[in-house]
Structures are given as C-alpha cells and as structure tokens.
Amino acid sequence: MSTDHEVGLSTSDYYFDLPKELIAQDPMEKRDECRLLVVDKETGDVEHHRFNEIIDYLEPGDCLVLNNTKVIPARLLGEKEGTGAAVEILLLKRRSGDVWETLVKPGKKLRPGARVSFGGGILKAEIMDIVDEGNRLVKFFYDGIWEEILDRLGEMPLPPYITHKLQNKDMYQTVYARFEGSAAAPTAGLHFTNELLERISKKGVDMAFVTLHVGLGTFRPVKVTNVKEHHMHTEWYQVTKEAADKINRARQGGHKVICVGTTSCRTIESAADQDGRLSECSGDTSIFIYPGYSFKVTDRLITNFHLPESTLVMLVSALAGREHVLNAYEEAIKERYRFFSFGDACFFK
Hints:
By secondary structure, this protein is of the alpha/beta class. It has 7 helices and 17 strands. A 9-stranded mixed β-sheet has the order 2-1-17-16-14-3-12-13-15. The radius of gyration is 21 Å and the shape is globular.
C-alpha cells in the first residue's frame, strides 16, 4: 500500500457508491425544511434534524459567513448563422465589456469567425478566439441593456446531473444573492429563508457576507490518481472591510466562525493571513483544500452532500476527517437523504 493511500491522497479514497435516485432533481418547496445531518467532526457521531433547527447550534457572538454571489442565467440557446444549426453557449467569465469566455456546443461548428443568433436576432455573437481547454472568447452584439436581454433569453446553467427543467429561476438563487457573476449557485445557502436569517440574527449571531463567483470548474471531476496533482480552477473573490471586521471580532472573542458552503470557506481561507486575520481584499483564488490542510479561520461548516471523488468531499474531509465524512455519507445514503445541489444539508460541528 502506498504512503499516499494511507493518508488519503489517492482520489479513489473519496469514492462512495451513490444510488442515482438519491440525486435531487428539484428544489424543496420550503427551503429550510430539508433534512440536516449534524456530524460531530471530532467523534464522527451523527444526528438527524430539519435544516431550520440549525439555529440551535449557533451561539450569540458566533459569525456565519455567507457567499452573496448571484447566478446569472448563463446558458444561451441559439442557431449558427448561415446553417441554422442549434448551438449552446455557456457564459463563464466576462473578459471585458461584451467579450466573454464561454463553453460552446458543438465546438467543431464554432470556429473563430462563426456567428450565432439568439432570440430571433435580439442577441448576436461572434466567436473571436479559442483559449484554454477549448473555451471560446465570444463578443456579443445587442441593442438595450445586457442584463435584461440575458434575463429574457438565458437559462440557469444547472449542473449536469440535474435533468429536470427548473420551473422558477429564483429557486437556484440564495435569498441573499446580490452580486452577479456565478455560473453555479453556492448551494449550501439555498436552504436559508429570510425568516430563518432574521431569527439567527435576533439570537445575536453575526453575519459576514463575502463574494466568490462560482465557476463551472466546481463540477470538474478529479482525473488524476494522486490528489496533489489536481489542477484547481480559479475563481474571483472579495472580502469587504465589514465582513473582515465581523470575522476577526468573532475570533477575538473566542466565538465560532461557521462557513455556509465550501465557497465561503475557500474565500476566507484564501483571504486570511497566517494568523487567521482578515482584511479587506479581492483577487483570484485557486486554493485547493484537502486532508493535511490546516484551517486558519473556519471552525464549522454547513454544506450539501457532494459528488464522490470531488474536490468538495476532499475539502470537507480536511475539516472533519475522511473516515468521519464517508461514514456520515454512508448513513445519509442508508437514511435516503437527497444529494447534491438541490439536496439536503450537512453540518460539521
């Protein structure tokens, strides 16, 4: 047995067998009534709850860190000018003005110079260049306000494992989503309602809002055998002075910093200095957290159930221990919890 295998650095160490029917296809009608598996990260003990009971685990002075990014309806369905062939363009990152880095289908038909029309010509696009991993730089042409046109023509870019069409765009958006820029939702936050957040706030729990624009790289499988060799995708983040001050204050007072989702966790771990202090900052992060990582700020984590062998399962394992995590997942499968983006939640306390 290799040393890598012993310390959980082999990708296969994060495999578990998930029945397909446990992959949630639709969001819960009442966000905060999904199930919540509470896991003691020291002992691995588990308890079964409803999500709105999360408030019982939060103490006055604690700080809840939430990612206020907003998902854009980034999936555009159109046709290639000249041939009428159906094409799909997925917006990944705005490069400048009306030029975006995108994923396109089918790639063979969309070479530089190709033009695409959407919504009967309301929006047009030209393929400018081919960049990393076959992504395309695309320039868009339109009359009017970009956000309005996108809202009218675009669809939410749901993860590949969700096959149902989303009936209400808002259900793939947190109630506190504010800054547009994500191609995927920070899904742990989907369980919060305004009423629950208000109750949490009244209990004396602080809330720090940070921003990390989630890229589709979050769904990219780990294709290497050794975890250390995985190339992590880059995402843009921002921590305001207000958020930094709240997190620092909680830590100085001996209270807990509880991250809502892996994106909030990656943001504050990227932004903190070696002593775990935060200050106002923004930039790109490609931080990859896996067992062996020493957390600087995060004490606890509210998250969803993640894909086998994913970087997200590795992050959770770094916080709570691989065996505890896999045992908790085994329990969740046995108890028929719902998995992935629209699924149930997990709290590592």
